[in-house]
TrEMBL record:
Pfam families: adh_short_C2. GO terms for molecular function: oxidoreductase activity. This is SDR family oxidoreductase. The keyword Manganese does not apply. Signal peptide: none annotated.
């Protein structure tokens, strides 16, 4: 008689996991066999609908509400996720994306962006690493950055600084948290309509990269899944932008509605 050994799915935490790119990431991880802890701030209805969909796939799932800029949020999220089973992956997807410039940024606005885009991922990484150590297992973290880091322009001043800081922190964390935890990042290009961008502007610039297509939420999700399953990769930043970083601009791409030159235009 052959003994059946039951295995439990690995558990992933996805911050901002209920909507937009986070939703695509949550669904891709579930399709790959992960249980998911869906963090949200205000999108309770979306989070519950998504949780029901993942539960219907026969996978463990829960939601965790938290304002990432508040003390104790990271510890709460990791604690909720641990109730599902063995933690394996943390995706720091959530971010604050508000326009400012070097001329008009405010201390309050800057601190809000840094709290959400830098301090929260660092705090989550710390508690996630501690949980892995307690479990006696290894796992990985994937931070979401932005192709703006390779294609710099002054728009979204505080946001960009916070992502530069998170990029360098990715390398520091990879060094410090090894061998228990690998830490990597993906840097998406323009993926969804953002800020004050109109649908017409988005449609005009989204496919006008060297690859003649725009980044999709699933492109980002599959890159995260790749890094989560790549045991020899840590401290890496993977651009997922269809080459958008090779089209320098004085303004953020969301303000463009003109053609970005590709190889055959030269």
């Amino acid at each position: 008689m052959t003994e059946t050994i039951e295995t439990t799915p690995p558990i992933a935490i996805v911050t901002g996991g209920a909507r937009r790119i986070g939703r695509a990431v949550s669904l891709a991880l579930a399709a790959a066999g992960y249980g998911v802890c869906i963090h949200y701030q205000r999108s309770q209805i979306d989070a519950r609908e998504l949780a029901d969909r993942i539960a219907a796939m026969g996978l463990p799932v829960t939601t965790a509400q938290a304002e990432l800029s508040e003390p104790g949020a990271a510890e709460h999220i990791v604690s909720v996720a641990r109730g599902l089973g063995q933690l394996d992956l943390l995706v720091n997807n959530a971010s604050s994306f508000d326009y400012d410039s070097a001329e008009d940024w405010t201390r309050d606005g800057f601190e809000t962006q840094m709290a959400t885009n830098l301090l929260a991922p660092l705090d989550l990484a710390r508690h996630f690493h501690a949980a892995l150590r307690d479990q006696g297992t290894t796992g990985s973290i994937v931070n979401l950055l932005d192709q703006k880091l390779f294609n710099i322009n002054p728009d979204f001043f505080s946001y960009t600084i916070s992502k530069f800081a998170l990029s360098d922190s990715t390398a520091l964390l990879a060094m410090q948290l090894a061998p228990i935890c690998r830490v990597n990042a993906v840097a998406p290009g323009l993926t969804l309509v953002s800020g004050d961008q109109t649908p017409e502007q988005f449609d005009a610039v989204h496919p006008q990269t060297p690859l003649r297509r725009g980044t999709t939420p699933n492109d980002v999700a599959q890159a995260i899944l790749f890094l989560a399953r790549a045991p020899a990769i840590t401290g890496a930043v993977l651009p997922v932008d269809c080459g958008q970083r090779f089209a320098p601009s004085q303004r953020d791409v969301m303000f463009q509605d003109t053609h970005i030159r590709g190889p055959e235009d030269k």
